[in-house]
Amino acid sequence: MKFSKRVLLRLKNKNKKLKPDKYKKLKRESVRGLIKGTVERPRLSVFRSNENIYAQIIDDTTAKTLVFCSTLDRDIKLNSENGRTCDASRLMGQKLAKLSIKKNITKIVFDRGPYLYHGRIKALADGARAGGLQF
């Protein structure tokens, strides 16, 4: 059964009958509705799990992934204890910036998804900025 965004928010606020995964999907769609990746400025999409963090740069006009990086990469695993730390996220952001600059991508749009701009997400963004990406 599909609900409109207004109905979902009303359910969340009044009855508390909305399941967390549906609320997360609604939140992701509300953020993504404002952000579109183009050829000039592709979208940097972030996914965070309990153990690792994944990021990819996507061109939404052709729906193709241009660059991908995660904390499971060998370089990042060797330099950090595990993928749950902000240091690992910062290293991953720098590596992602290096890979994207090799493909002549310097300007991007940051899509944090349903996550708050805090902790590992912020560390990834700071690492990408330090690596040379502009957003």
Category by helix and strand content: alpha+beta
Main β-sheet: number of strands, strand sense, barrel status? Answer: 4 strands, mixed
Rounded to an integer, what's the Rg over CA atoms? Answer: 16 Å
Number of strands: 4
The DSSP helix count reads 5
CATH architecture of the largest domain: 2-Layer Sandwich
Q: Terminal Cα separation, in Å?
A: 37 Å
Share in β-strands: 15-25%
As laid out across the biggest beta sheet, the strand order is 3-2-1-4
| Shape verdict | globular
- According to CATH, the fold-level topology of the largest domain is Nucleotidyltransferase, domain 5
What is the number of independent domains? 2
The CATH class designation of the largest domain is Alpha Beta
Spans of 5+ residues with little confidence (pLDDT < 50)?
Answer: none
Roughly what percent helix?
Answer: 40-55%
The overall pLDDT average reads 85
Q: What is the subunit arrangement here? A: single chain
Query: What is the H/E order?
Result: HHEEEHHEH
